[in-house]
Design a protein that fits this description.
The structure is a homodimer of 182-residue chains. Chain A is α/β, with parallel strands linked by helices and 182 residues long. Chain A has 7 helices and 5 strands; from the N terminus they run βαβααβαβααβα. The first copy, chain A, has a single domain, classed as Rossmann fold. The radius of gyration of chain A is 16 Å and the shape is globular. Chains A and B meet through α3 of A and α3 of B.
């Protein structure tokens, strides 16, 4: 049964917290269930829609707004949009929540030390050595969500547990009706 | 019956040729038929996804690519996307045609004199007086489609005739199965 309502599930959190990994696993489950799903990854959107934007406060806000604009277009057409983008500023996340129907804020919470130890893309090392300025968690603040719709603590949860929580939330809120918790 | 396949109907042509007007009328018909439809208007996309881009050759290409990226995301999720954007360069329109499934090029053809006489947004007057450089048709070429999927000659067709042609084409190609030709 195809879904009627779309949703925007925004995974916010530090680089390396597990946003993209969880988004991908959630996407797989939804696709198996024949639902319409798109992953909007921060890097992908920068490449296609915001090449010229840097990582200053203003540019990050603009980048997040662009992702929100595209996510909303898809969401209102019945797609479950999984956004994996740091979106470090609380105010812009709140703005999106107000303006986009079916917006869920999922805080992918992992302590900085853990993210830095993982350093999947080698970005923390570069940031520490000063090669990447304005790096979230190092020399730019990450504003922790105060009341996220869901929190995944990836330090102590498995990917599969986090995925199950997200799917369960989507079922509970009526965005998906079939059981794809697997 | 909701449509299964999406499509990207790209209305290309000079400013004032009638792209947005036809797109809106087509959209109304499709919406009445309960189909999923979005209009991506060149100005709207510039405002939301390309504020910093100007009207140089390179910036226009980038803008058209951004519209194409968003249109493709929507189209592959079953939305009929009506794009009303000049897209003056043949090569980039061809690129999109190659890369986006269900891409239809609709040439909204109206002679420059007619568009200039209409001058709905007052842009031709500004362009002629040098206030808007790189204006398509004045000091930047519009590369006429060589083999568009459809041509609407708005000088001698009514909006309603052009609209009917577009809907008929969508039916003929199997993008819509219901009769919403009205």
């Amino acid at each position: 049964m195809p879904q009627e309502r779309g949703a925007i599930v925004w995974f916010t959190g530090l680089s390396g917290a597990g946003k993209t990994t969880i988004a991908r696993t959630v996407a797989e489950r939804l696709q198996i269930a024949n639902l319409k799903v798109e992953i909007l990854d921060g890097d992908l959107i920068r490449q296609h829609l915001a090449k010229e934007l840097g990582f200053s406060h203003a540019d990050r806000i603009e980048n997040v707004r662009r992702i929100g604009f595209v996510a909303d277009l898809l969401g209102r057409n019945g797609v479950i949009v999984l956004v994996a983008a740091i979106a470090p500023h609380r105010a812009i996340r709140e703005e999106l929540k107000q303006n986009c129907e079916g917006f869920l804020e999922v805080y992918v919470n992992s302590p900085l030390e853990v993210c830095e130890r993982r350093d999947v893309k080698g970005l923390y090392a570069k940031a520490r050595s000063g090669l990447i300025p304005n790096f979230t968690g190092i020399d730019m603040a990450y504003e922790v969500p105060l009341a996220p719709d869901l929190e995944c603590q990836t330090e102590c949860e498995t990917i599969s547990q986090s995925t199950a929580k997200v799917l369960q939330k989507l079922v509970a809120l009526g965005y998906i009706s079939i059981d794809c918790r697997g």
